[in-house]
Every structure is written in structure tokens, then in C-alpha cells.
Amino acid sequence: MGGIASSPVVPPHYVRTPPLRPRSENKRSRIVDAAMQHFAKHGYHAARVGDIANELGIAKGSIFQHFGSKDGLFFEVYKRAVRSFSKYLDAPAEVRAAGFFQVLYYWLVRTEHMLHEDWIPYRISLLGNYGTDLLLKREINRFLTTEDPYGTVAFVRFGLERGELRNDMDVEMIVSILDWTVERFQDALLTAELDPGLFRRQSEMPEKKEARIRQFLELLQRAIGTPSVIGKSRPEARKVAAEMRKAAAPVVGRQKL
Predict the structure, then answer these.
(1) What is the third-level CATH fold of 86-251?
(2) DSSP secondary structure, 83-143, as one string
(3) 205-253 confidence digits (pLDDT tens)
(4) CATH topology for 22-82?
(5) Is the overall model pTM greater than 0.70, yes or no?
């Protein structure tokens, strides 16, 4: 998942700091906390390091001392945001027991519910994925590939061990397909709640979203699933969907793997 184009510009060098003393580490953490709120509210391009410094009552240069640049600060904010999300295999035991595609279904149904719970980190992840320049996006892609914060590799191996995924495909290819499609599909489910106009489709009724989730999973099953799971009925899925909608109901009206 590298950059989509080559560039003669030397990629930015993000600050690699040695182990920090407790006091310095605490200050760095406070800066990231404030920056996360600021970036989420104003977006990447409109955010100002000087404003973040003013909110904290510190010198602007102090932020640059810790993070090197605005890009370096956002990169640390982005890493904290995505590390806060659940991994695929964090799904409940009964969902994991139902299989690979049931786990996927569980997280897709919970997409809007996760937004209400984690609006700020999800907003940051959207900014990192769609609202930054190519050089910073390249660094983000490198981080996602090397750290695998969503546990996609372990999840794919889980599906292979259960015999639900094709064993004639390279593991990295299956991981890439999930990375490319699942995250983008989740983003498309949340157009009204986040950035209207960022995606082409507008908000939909719950029944329409439910149908789209089923269609998306059927496409994935045909692409990476074994013949035994293609077209398989999902009575458990309907039960999980109903439970998720019921669980999300109390948080509707509050203000998004």
C-alpha cells in the first residue's frame, strides 16, 4: 500500500526520539491529546500548530521540538487514533465461533455504533486516509503495513485455519483486499454522519444499509472465500444485526476498522 505516484521530493523525516523521561513523555502525551481534538474539529489543512500551543499554554516551538513539524504531529495523532480501534478478532467469542465472514458482518453492522462511541479517532483516521498530502499518506501507509493495527493478518490466518478462505491465494493479497475494501466500505456507510459530499452516496435507511452490507459480503465471499461459504445462509447474521441495532438505539442523536 505505498504511494500512488512517485515524487522527486525527499519524504519528510519524522522525529525518532530516544526513550523519554516521564515528565517529557507526559508533556508529549498532552500535546497529542489536544492535537487530536483540534485536528478532528478543524481538519488537517485548517489546523494550526500555533492554536494548539495556545490551547495548552506552551510555546509553539515546544511542539516542533517534540514532533518536528505539523506532519509529524498529525502522524502521532493518527497512530494513537487507529491504535484505539478494536482488532478484528476482538469480536465476541460467539461471533468468532460463527466464522470469518460472521466476524466481518459483526463489525460492519457496528460501524455506525462505533462512530457514536469513537467520533474523534474515526474522524482522525478519515483525515489521514483522505485529507492529507501524498508524502504524509505514504508514511501512514507504511505504518499500517508494518504495524497492522487492526490485526488483519491474524484475522486472515483465522479464516484460513477454519477453511473459509481460499488457500490458493497469497496471504498478503487477501490482507490487501480486506484493507482496500472493508475500510472504504465502512467509510461509505457513514456519509451523512461525517463529511457529506466526501462520498457520492447520501445517507440511507437502515434496511438499505443492511442490504448493502449483505451484498458486500457476498462479493467478498466470491473473491476470497472457499466454495463451502459462497452463498451460505446467515441466520446468525440477522440475529446479530437486530442485536446491534437495538444496542445502538440509545446513542442515536449523540454526536465511526
Answers:
(1) Tetracycline Repressor; domain 2 (1.10.357)
(2) HTSPPGGGS-HHHHHH-HHHHHHHHHHTHHHHHHHSHHHHHHHHHHHHSS-HHHHHHHHHH
(3) 667 788 889 999 999 999 999 987 765 545 454 555 555 455 444 433 3
(4) Arc Repressor Mutant, subunit A (1.10.10)
(5) yes
